[in-house]
Design a protein that fits this description.
The complex is a heterotrimer.
Chain A: E1 6-17, E2 20-32, E3 37-41, H1 48-56, E4 63-72, E5 75-76, H2 82-88, E6 93-96, H3 100-103, H4 110-121, H5 126-139, H6 145-149, H7 158-170, E7 176-180, H8 188-205, E8 208-213, H9 216-222, E9 225-230, E10 233-239, H10 240-245, H11 250-257, E11 306-309, E12 312-314
Parallel strand pairs in A: 3-8, 3-9, 6-7, 7-8
Antiparallel strand pairs in A: 1-2, 1-4, 4-5, 9-10, 10-12, 11-12
Helix pairs in contact in A: 4-5, 5-7
Chain B: H1 2-29, H2 33-37, H3 44-53, H4 60-72, H5 86-121, H6 126-140, H7 143-157, H8 178-211, H9 214-221, H10 226-263, H11 269-279, H12 282-310, H13 312-315
Helix pairs in contact in B: 1-4, 1-12, 5-6, 5-8, 5-10, 5-12, 6-8, 7-8, 7-10, 8-10, 9-10, 10-11, 10-12, 11-12
Chain C: H1 17-26, H2 29-46, H3 48-51, E1 73-74, E2 80-81, H4 92-128, H5 130-145, H6 148-159, H7 163-190, H8 193-200, H9 205-241, H10 253-264, H11 270-297
Antiparallel strand pairs in C: 1-2
The chains are: A alpha/beta, B mainly alpha, C mainly alpha.
Chain lengths: 326, 320, 303
C-alpha cells in the first residue's frame, strides 16, 4: 500500500491564553490518500480551521502544536524547522483561505502576487513565471488572463478572486491542498461552479484535498471521506456516503437533520438544542453530553473513537446503530 | 479624478477665504487698527494722513475688499521695522525654514521608520519596549528644552557641532556646503524629534495591524521568504498611512520651526515672526499667517494626490 | 480512560467597575510610577510656600551678590543653594517650586476650562445633530488642522501678554480636541436605550445631557484630558520661553528656562537645566499615566 499523502496522528494544538489553555485541537487523527478528498466538517469553534493551520504550520501565537504527528508523505511536519516548512508551503502543500477579499494583498497587482509565488520555489526567469501564472489562470477558467494579470484584487468579483487564490495554490502542482471554507463567502451559484472546477482538477492532477467547511451539502457532492469535528475532536468519520446516509453520532444526526432541504415544509426546522460549549469550560466526559437527547450517566466518561461499522467510527456510547436511512 | 481635484481646489479656496477673513478681522477689528498699522512714533498729523491713506476711515467691508485686492497683487503691507514689503521679507527667509523642515522630515523617516518597523515586528523584545518608551519621551519633551540640551551637550560640552546660526550658503541653500550642513544637523534633529516619535508609533501600530491581516498569512502560506513578506507585503501597506501623516505634518513642522529657530537663532521665517510679534510689526504677522495658510492648503492637496497614487483602490475608483 | 470531573469555576469576586479600573491601571508599573511622581509634584507645588527655603519673589531676601552660584554652593546668607542660583541671586530650588505652581495652575486650569467648553459643545453637536452638528464640527476641523503653536502665537499677538491671555489662548487652542472626542462617544451613546428612556420621560435636555449622557462619555474624555494637561503645560512653557507667555512677576518653568538661556553657552547650565528637568518630569509622568489610561479605558480592548 502506498504511503498516504497525509496521515495525522493524535494532533494536539493548544492556545495558551491569559484566561486559560484552549485545547482547540485535542487528539485528532485522520488519513488522506493520494487523489482523495477529505471533508472536515464542524461548526465554528470546532477546531477544523486550526487543524488546517496546524498542518501547514501557520498557527498564530498564543497557539502552537503541542503533540502528535503530521506525516506528509511519511515525513513528520511537526518536527521540521521553519525554513524547511517554508519550502513546502505553496510548493508541495498549498492552502486556500476563506475570504478572498482579504487573502490577496490589496496594494499589489495580481501578477506580482502570482509571480512571486513561482519565484519563491523555482529559479526561473520572470517571463517563464508570468507564463505559468497565465496558464494557471486559464486552468481555473478566468477569461482574458493577460489583462487580469495586470489588475488589482479589488477589481475582481468575489468568485474571481477565489479562483485566483485557487490558481495560486495550483502553481506548483502541490500534492496536498488544504482549503479552509473557500466557498463560504461566495454566493451559491458561484459556489457550485468552483466546487465543480476543484473536483475536476483534483481528479486530473491526483492532488489530495482537505476541504474544511461547516456546510454538509458541499461535502456531500465533493468528498470521498468525511470527518466531523466537535469541540476539538473528531466525533465521527468514515466514507461520505455511509456517514451521511447512516450517521452514528448524535451530533452528526443533528447536523444532517438541521439541513433545510431535509425538512418538510410546514414543520419547524430541526435544530440541535443549546450552543457549542466554550473550549475553556468543556463539560466533563463527552463534550456533546449537554446537548444530546441520548445522554445518561455513562456519558460522564470520555468516549473513544469506536470503530462501529466497516470504515466508520464514532465517539459515542449511544450511537445510532439501528437507523439506516433508505 | 479630475472631478475630485476640482472639488478639492474649491474647498481649499473656501478655506483660504475663511482664513483671510479671520486674519483680517483679527488685525483690523480687534484692538485699535490705527495703532496696529501705523508706527507708534507717529504724531497726530501723520496719523490723520496715514488713516486716510490706508483707507481706515472707510467701512470695514470696504477695507476688507481693499485688503483682498492688495493681497492678490502680492502686496501684504510693509514692515514697520524693516520698511520693506512684508511679503518680500518672508520670502527671503523662507529657504532657511524650508531647509530645516525638510531636514527634519528626512530625519524623521530615516530614523522613525526602521525603529517603528523593528518595534512592530518584535513587539515583546526589550529593544521594542525601549523604543516605545523613547517615543513617549519624544513627544512629551518640549521642543525648546531638547534644543537647549542638544546645544549644551553637543556644542558646549563636546564641541562637535556649532551651537547657533546658519552656516555658509551656496545659491541660497546651506545644505550645499559642508559648513552649512554642520549647522543644519542639530536644529533638524531637534525639530524632527516630535515627528520621529509619531512615525515610530504609527509604523509600529501599522505593522502590528498588518501582520494580523489574512493576506500576510496567505503570503506565508505561499511559501514566500520572511523578508519578502515583511518588506513587500507589509511595508507597502503601512507606507500609505505613514506617508500621509508625514506629509500632513510637514505644515505643522514648518509652524513648529518657530521654536527651533528661536533656540538656535536660525534666521528663518519662524524667528522673523517671533521677533515681529515682540515688536508688534503687524504687517509681517499678517503676511506670515496668510502664507502659512496657503502652504498648508497646498501641502494638503499634494498629500491627497500622493495618497491616490500610492493606494490603487482610491485611484481606480472611477474605473470598472 | 479516567473521567475528569470538572468543578464549576469559582464565582467571580464582587468587582465594581471602579475597582477593576484601579487594578487594571495599577497593573502597569510604569503608569503607577507616573502617577506617584505626579502626585509628589502636585504636593510640592501646592505646599511650595512652606517647603521652599526661600521666597524668590520677596526682594528683601535676595542678594544679587549671590548670583550665578553653582549648585551646592553656600550663599551669603548661609543658605545652601542645592540647585544653584540664577543671575539675580534667586535660589533655583525655590524658583522651581514656585514655577511648578504657575505651570501646573495654568496648564491644568486651561485644560479644565477647555474641557468643559469642548465637552459641552461636543455633546451639543452630537445630541442636536443636523446643522448645529455640522457647524460645530466644521469649526473643530478648522481649529484642529491649524498647528497649535501658531494659533496660540496668533492669539497672543492680538491679545497681548499676561497670564489671563495665556489661559485664553490655551483654551481656544485646546477645546477642539475635547469637542471631537466627546462628540464621537456621544454619537454612539445617543442611540442607546437609556437615552431614549430619558427622552420618553420628557426630562429636560440639559438634564439628559449632563446626568445621563456625559457620565457615559467620560472614559475617553478622561484620557484626552490627561494628555491635554501635559500638552498645555508644554505649550505654556514654550510660549513663555519665547517671551510671549506669563509675565516676569509670575514666572513659570518655561520662563525660568528662558532666563537661563543666555548663560548656557558660558557653561552656567543649571539656570536652565534644572527647571527643564522639573518640567520634563512633570510632563513625562502625566503622559505615562495618560498612555496607560488610554489602554485601560479603551472599550475596544475589553474582551
Amino acid at each position: 500500500m502506498t504511503t498516504p499523502t497525509l496521515e495525522v496522528r493524535d494532533l494536539r494544538t493548544h492556545f495558551f491564553t491569559r484566561a486559560g489553555v484552549v485545547k482547540a485541537v485535542d487528539g485528532v487523527s485522520f488519513t488522506v490518500g493520494r487523489g482523495k478528498v477529505l471533508g472536515l466538517v464542524g461548526e465554528s469553534g470546532s477546531g477544523k480551521s486550526v487543524t488546517g493551520f496546524s498542518i501547514i504550520g501557520l498557527v498564530d501565537a498564543p497557539g502552537r502544536v503541542v503533540g502528535g504527528q503530521i506525516l506528509f508523505q511519511g515525513q513528520d511536519l511537526a518536527k521540521l524547522d521553519e525554513e524547511a516548512m517554508r519550502r513546502l508551503r505553496g510548493n508541495r502543500i498549498a492552502m486556500i483561505f476563506q475570504d478572498p477579499m482579504m487573502t490577496l494583498n490589496p496594494v499589489l497587482r495580481v501578477d506580482t502576487q502570482m509571480i512571486e509565488t513561482v519565484l519563491a520555489h523555482e529559479q526561473v526567469d520572470r517571463e517563464t513565471a508570468r507564463q505559468r501564472a497565465r496558464d494557471a489562470l486559464g486552468l481555473v477558467g478566468i477569461p482574458s488572463p493577460d489583462e487580469r494579470l495586470k489588475s488589482y484584487p479589488h477589481q475582481f468579483s468575489g468568485g474571481m478572486r477565489q479562483r485566483v487564490a485557487i490558481a495560486i495554490a495550483l502553481l506548483h502542482r502541490p500534492e496536498l491542498i488544504v482549503a479552509d471554507e473557500p466557498t463560504t463567502a461566495l454566493d451559491v451559484t458561484i459556489q457550485g461552479q468552483i466546487l465543480a472546477e476543484v473536483q475536476k482538477l483534483a481528479a486530473t492532477t491526483g492532488t489530495s484535498l482537505i476541504w474544511i467547511t461547516h456546510d454538509l451539502s458541499v461535502v456531500a457532492g465533493l468528498a470521498d471521506d468525511i470527518a466531523v469535528m466537535y469541540a476539538g475532536r473528531i466525533v465521527e468519520d468514515g466514507p461520505v456516503g455511509q456517514v451521511l446516509d447512516a450517521p452514528l453520532h448524535p451530533y452528526t444526526v443533528g447536523l444532517i437533520g438541521s439541513v433545510p432541504s431535509r425538512n418538510r415544509r410546514g414543520e419547524p426546522l430541526r435544530q440541535i438544542p443549546g450552543m457549542t460549549p466554550s473550549l475553556l469550560k468543556l463539560p466533563a466526559g463527552c463534550a456533546f453530553r449537554t446537548r444530546c437527547e441520548r445522554a445518561d450517566e455513562a456519558c460522564l466518561a470520555e468516549p473513544d473513537l469506536f470503530p462501529l461499522r466497516e470504515g466508520q467510527r464514532a465517539r459515542c456510547f449511544h450511537p445510532h446503530l439501528e437507523e439506516a436511512r433508505a | 479624478m479630475t472631478v475630485y481635484l476640482l472639488r478639492r481646489l474649491f474647498q481649499s479656496l473656501l478655506v483660504l477665504v475663511a482664513m483671510s477673513i479671520i486674519v483680517f478681522v483679527g488685525v483690523y477689528a480687534v484692538g485699535d487698527p490705527v495703532e496696529i498699522l501705523i508706527s507708534p512714533d507717529a504724531d497726530q498729523a501723520e496719523r490723520a494722513r496715514a488713516i486716510v491713506a490706508l483707507g481706515l476711515d472707510k467701512p470695514l467691508w470696504q477695507q476688507y475688499l481693499v485688503f483682498v485686492q492688495n493681497a492678490l497683487r502680492g502686496d501684504l503691507g510693509r514692515s514697520f521695522v524693516y520698511n520693506e514689503p512684508a511679503l518680500q521679507l518672508i520670502l527671503q527667509k523662507m529657504p532657511a525654514t524650508m531647509e530645516l523642515a525638510f531636514g527634519a522630515t528626512i530625519f524623521a523617516i530615516l530614523i522613525g521608520l526602521p525603529l517603528g518597523l523593528y518595534a512592530g515586528l518584535h513587539p515583546d523584545s526589550p529593544g521594542a519596549k525601549a523604543i516605545m518608551a523613547g517615543s513617549i519621551l519624544g513627544f512629551s519633551l518640549p521642543t525648546f528644552w531638547v534644543g537647549l540640551m542638544l546645544i549644551m551637550v553637543f556644542a558646549v560640552q563636546l564641541g562637535w557641532l556649532p551651537s547657533t546660526g546658519r552656516g555658509d550658503t551656496l545659491w541660497g541653500w546651506s545644505f550645499l556646503t559642508a559648513n552649512g550642513i554642520s549647522h543644519l544637523i542639530l536644529p533638524s534633529i531637534n525639530l524632527a524629534l516630535f515627528k520621529i516619535s509619531l512615525v515610530i508609533r504609527l509604523t509600529r501600530s501599522g505593522v502590528r495591524e498588518t501582520m494580523l491581516m489574512d493576506y500576510v498569512k496567505f503570503a506565508r502560506a505561499k511559501g514566500l521568504s520572511p523578508a519578502r513578506v515583511t518588506y513587500v507585503h507589509v511595508f507597502k501597506n503601512i507606507l500609505i498611512p505613514v506617508v500621509t501623516v508625514v506629509g500632513l505634518e510637514l505644515g505643522s513642522t514648518i509652524a513648529f520651526s518657530v521654536v527651533t529657530e528661536s533656540v538656535f537663532a536660525w534666521p528663518g521665517m519662524g524667528k522673523l515672526i517671533i521677533d515681529s510679534i515682540n515688536v508688534l510689526d503687524r504687517p509681517v504677522i499678517v503676511a506670515y499667517l496668510m502664507i502659512i495658510v496657503l502652504m498648508f492648503i497646498v501641502i494638503n492637496l499634494v498629500v491627497d494626490i500622493m495618497y491616490s497614487v500610492l493606494d490603487p483602490r482610491v485611484r481606480l475608483e472611477g474605473q470598472g | 480512560m479516567s473521567s475528569t470531573t470538572a468543578t464549576p469555576a469559582p464565582a467571580a469576586k464582587e468587582e465594581t467597575p471602579f475597582r477593576r479600573f484601579v487594578s487594571e491601571f495599577a497593573a502597569s508599573r510604569i503608569a503607577l510610577g507616573g502617577f506617584v511622581v505626579f502626585a509628589i509634584i502636585v504636593v510640592l507645588a501646592v505646599f511650595a510656600p512652606w517647603i521652599a527655603p526661600q521666597n524668590p519673589y520677596d526682594l528683601g531676601t535676595i542678594d544679587i551678590m549671590d548670583g550665578r552660584l553653582e549648585p551646592g554652593a553656600v550663599g551669603g546668607s548661609g543658605m545652601t543653594h542645592w540647585l544653584g542660583t540664577d543671575d539675580q541671586g534667586r535660589d533655583m530650588l525655590s524658583g522651581i517650586l514656585y514655577g511648578l505652581r504657575i505651570s501646573l495652575t495654568v496648564g491644568a486650569g486651561s485644560a479644565l476650562i477647555a474641557g468643559i467648553v469642548g465637552a459641552s459643545l461636543g455633546m451639543l453637536a452630537a445630541y442636536a445633530g443636523g446643522r448645529t452638528d455640522s457647524v460645530i464640527m466644521r469649526v473643530v476641523d478648522l481649529q484642529l488642522s491649524f498647528p497649535t503653536i501658531l494659533a496660540a502665537l496668533m492669539i497672543l499677538a492680538f491679545l497681548g501678554k499676561g497670564i489671563v491671555n495665556v489661559v485664553i489662548a490655551l483654551v481656544i487652542v485646546e477645546w477642539a480636541y475635547y469637542a471631537r472626542t466627546v462628540r464621537g462617544s456621544a454619537l454612539v451613546e445617543r442611540r442607546r436605550e437609556y437615552i431614549e428612556a430619558a427622552q420618553c420621560l420628557a426630562l429636560p435636555t440639559r438634564r439628559i445631557l449632563f446626568r445621563h449622557l456625559l457620565p457615559n462619555c467620560l472614559p475617553p474624555l478622561i484620557v484626552v484630558g490627561t494628555i491635554q494637561v501635559a500638552r498645555a503645560i508644554a505649550l505654556e512653557a514654550t510660549l513663555s520661553f519665547l517671551g510671549l507667555g506669563v509675565p516676569i512677576t509670575e514666572p513659570s518653568l518655561g520662563l525660568l528656562i528662558a532666563n537661563g538661556y543666555e548663560y548656557m553657552l558660558s557653561g552656567k547650565y543649571w539656570i536652565s537645566f534644572y527647571p527643564g528637568v522639573a518640567l520634563l518630569i512633570t510632563i513625562v509622568s502625566i503622559n505615562l499615566m495618560g498612555d496607560h489610561l488610554r489602554d485601560v479605558l479603551n472599550p475596544r480592548l475589553k474582551k
